[in-house]
Specification:
Lipoprotein; signal; eight-stranded antiparallel barrel; about 170 residues; 10 strands; globular
Length: about 170
């Protein structure tokens, strides 16, 4: 308790010594500090593992799950698109992170064929945004670079990526 009291008094003393008496400047600085604190709270942690989940469809029967491992500016992970009555896409993600923006290549299997697609995400501490896909003239899907991050995923406990151990017989 004494240590806490001493630290509090030192912080107060330092705060009072650094003031310059200009209240307008102090108010502006405080407002800027709040913005910085909010940005810091919403910023994703580095060297961290994240899982996100999105369900959609008439009965939320279609699921997309994203597992990301952020290590400095390198991002790896998995992505699973699991529609109820269509062929699934399951594969790996590999890319880079700049600020909160992630540019990655999704290498996946669908209908027994291997394919790749560029994907774009925006990561915060509690959710993941993705740029939607568009269909090209040749019928392939690609990320719509001009679109915003409109596909939103909720933070998850990685349930879609956990494998259930089978009991030994």
């Amino acid at each position: 308790m004494k240590l806490y009291t001493i630290l509090s008094m030192c912080a107060l003393a330092l705060a009072s010594c650094t003031g310059n008496g200009n209240k307008a400047t102090d108010t502006t600085k405080a407002a800027g500090d709040d913005t910085t604190k909010e940005a810091t709270l919403n910023a994703p942690a580095q060297n961290m593992e994240y899982c996100f989940l999105r369900t959609e469809g008439t009965s939320n029967q279609d699921t997309t799950a994203v597992h990301l491992v952020v290590n400095a500016n390198k991002v790896t992970g998995e992505m699973k698109w699991l529609p109820k009555e269509k062929d699934a896409r399951k594969g790996t993600l590999e890319g880079t992170m700049s600020g909160n923006d992630i540019k990655a290549v999704w290498t996946f299997m669908q209908e027994g064929a291997k394919d790749t697609m560029a994907v774009a995400f925006q990561l915060s501490s509690q959710q993941l945004g993705q740029k939607p896909f568009k269909v090209t003239k040749n019928g392939r899907q690609e990320t719509d670079g001009a679109a915003g991050y409109t596909i939103m995923y909720k933070l998850d406990n990685c349930s879609a990526f956990k494998t259930v151990a089978k009991p030994a017989l």
